[in-house]
Recover the amino acids of this structure.
């Protein structure tokens, strides 16, 4: 069965800390995505990557960066966490034929920045 | 950005068909329509997708209008476990896979 694993289910960090959210997929997928989800706003795309070392900005990249050194791992980095980055973060992946390949999501990391 | 329009919420009775509408008037010829659902505290789950023809799988049916500007997801016999947020999306020109707010389906006993 396909699997997208996010390293933490819940995370509490302090303002100003550097935060790493990790995502690993075991499906040899080329494309990986990071979304954040907030009440009333749906899922908003932060960054995505279509290959190792490649990255593209999504709709809300400000305050975030990403790293894709290996195909199976896509990391979201909050350089200096702020309280407005308190949110649910969802990672997803899909195969190379992005038009005709469903997204597989992890179960999310609920980040609280205090 | 690829945008779809869905009503914010709807409900249906358990055992009846749930018909969830979606407008995607800016869809282009090679873009697929996808439906996902999200049950509280889990990641979204893929349901079904299609290009032009109607599609059916073990979970649902997808009806796409001839002009492809709208679609309907049909859950033929809704159960309480189908209560969730349902997202309709299509791939944008830059493959951003943008989600909207979705539609909250409440199935009542």
């Amino acid at each position: 069965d396909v699997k997208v694993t996010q390293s933490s289910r819940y995370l509490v960090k302090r303002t100003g800390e550097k935060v790493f959210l990790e995502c690993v997929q075991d499906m040899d997928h080329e494309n990986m995505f990071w979304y954040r989800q907030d009440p009333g706003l749906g899922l908003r795309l932060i960054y995505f990557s279509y290959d190792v070392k490649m990255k593209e900005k999504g709709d809300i990249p400000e305050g975030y960066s990403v790293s894709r050194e290996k195909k199976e791992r896509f990391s979201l980095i909050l350089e200096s966490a702020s309280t407005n980055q308190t949110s649910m973060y969802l990672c997803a992946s899909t195969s190379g034929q992005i038009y005709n390949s469903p997204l597989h999501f992890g179960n999310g990391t609920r980040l609280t920045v205090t | 950005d690829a945008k779809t329009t869905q009503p914010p919420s709807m409900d249906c009775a358990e055992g009846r068909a749930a018909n969830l509408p979606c407008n995607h008037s800016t869809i282009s010829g090679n873009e697929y329509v996808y439906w996902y659902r999200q049950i509280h505290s889990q990641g979204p789950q893929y349901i079904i997708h299609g290009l032009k023809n109607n599609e059916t799988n073990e979970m649902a049916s997808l009806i796409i209008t001839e002009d492809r500007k709208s679609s309907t997801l049909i859950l033929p016999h809704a159960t309480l476990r189908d209560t969730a947020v349902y997202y309709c999306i299509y791939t944008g020109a830059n493959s951003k896979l943008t989600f909207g707010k979705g539609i909250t389906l409440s199935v009542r006993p």
Remarks:
- The interface with chain A takes residues 1, 30-32, 34, 36, 41-46, 49, 51, 87, 91, 94-102 of chain B (CB under 8 Å).
